[in-house]
Amino acid sequence: MSSLYLFLMIFQAIIAALLVWVVLMQKSEGGGLGVGGSPAGLMSARGAADFLTRATTVLATVFVVLSIALAALAVRSGAGHAIDDSLNRAAPVSAPASAPASGAARAADPLAGAAQTAPAAAPQAAPSPAAPAQADPFAAPAKK
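RESULT FIELD:
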């Protein structure tokens, strides 16, 4: 990051704070940037010469110009950098689950012929409570 970019960022933050302050200091019914108020607010001598209105216009213009300049600097300074792939890690290769011997042909397309090979079977009953449950490696023994 160049020192010019850092200086412009700090200057833009100051301009933004001043712009917020100037906008909040204006009367709500007075023509801030010519919006609202009396119909002759901006056209009168008082409206055209109002310090806060002119300050708002100048600060808003400086803010927009700084935003464009900072965007141009950011694009220009980041153009020469390559994408950082230092965190690119390969996933561990695991063996695919073995398919049953009779279903080896169906492994490529698991839905092929499902309507013809699956006869209407009765729903299976829930396992009995006496049947051993599968071992859960994360289950801790119950404390009494």
